[in-house]
């Protein structure tokens, strides 16, 4: 087995399986696109396996993953693996469009079932109800508000002290108090935040170790290890694992954890990226993390990726995921993220200067003559453009536009059918078929009366307009006195709808002259 790292260190170069980062494979593919020479290392490869292909949606690394799919030699089979892809059909369709027909294999069965828990200062409770469709009511804020009173009432009942001023009826009335304010919610959440040793004690008592404890801070991981001194009674020895540790130290910790010599590993989310360290329990300390733009919430995909480390196949009957109460996030926020479901893959493909240079300088085999050997030449701009246009974003965008156009055409046809069904002729035909002769005759007579009334209304409107114009004529002659009469202009549009426009009479014009109209408007003192 040959292992490549980002620093290109290698072990056992003669092995038949190469393990490398996507960045190294990406650089190798740049040199092989269009190259049919058998001397290239990638042409001795039968299969490329892309594990955790959901990183295609990663902002910083997504472009590299897309380019690997685009530049893969057609002779090499591609296998993409992931547990958190909501649109695998689109991914398979994109790969099939670029290369050859692709087969999609999906499975919703998990070998080791997961159970979700929520850790507070005093307890470790199931996050969901018995059906697994709603949050456990004992974790609701209203329940936590009256819980201290219920516990106090229970203690007084056990002490058998009569004459207590606290009764169960009083407790029931407390559960019907007004809605909690923001300050009340913050106070309740802060009072329920557990310490690391509190949660560790519950894990040990319920035989839920070994565990991976995800903390989104290197400093937080190193600090959490110190809690081992204050909870020695749990026998839960812990170590930290993050990108700031030396590679040799991380390998050492992974070996100890796999052998069961370390019960708890405090790690950042980078451990969820394909490292083979399954545990019985995955503990997620927070639902938010720091980013360049401030604190952001975890996505459902990130949450499920970390939860995927819980449950060891062949060892555990079930895995456990523990979400921890924080000062700002409770069980309700956990359920919101959990019930959202998987997020679809989104293209992060962006062209960079390095990509352009690599494409134009990439290998391409050309024959000088029949007798000469092959030599390498750069790609043309047209060839580079075609490669870039094969991105996942272009595929999804074109499909979305096509689907939207088809849906729009379908809706337009439905509107035409409904419009034709509402025409007078269509209504008349349907009425003649469904109604009796007397009823149909009555409707026809009513329609004739309606038409006559509309005609009378139109004639009356015309008479009113003529009288209005007759009354305005004296005012038009006296317009030079400075009293500008107001008019109401009316017209019908192409659909026959009548509109009214208020206007002011400025003067008479013999022809439609724009400059004269402009002079009349700006020289009139009434507009100053």
What does this structure look like?
The chain has helices spanning 22-30, 62-71, 88-98, 141-158, 168-174, 182-191, 196-205, 218-225, 247-258, 300-307, 331-340, 353-361, 381-388, 392-421, 424-434, 437-477, 514-523, and strands at residues 2-3, 18-19, 47-51, 77-81, 114-119, 124-126, 211-214, 238-241, 264-267, 281-284, 288-291, 294-297, 319-324, 365-367, 374-376, 486-492, 498-504. With 528 residues, the protein is an alpha/beta fold. β14 (365-367) and β15 (374-376) form a beta hairpin. The longest helix is centred in the C-terminal third of the chain and has 41 residues, at 437-477. It is elongated, with a radius of gyration of 38 Å. The relative contact order is 0.09. This is DExH-box ATP-dependent RNA helicase. Residues 170-181 have a biased composition (Polar residues). GO terms for molecular function: ATP binding; helicase activity; hydrolase activity; nucleic acid binding.
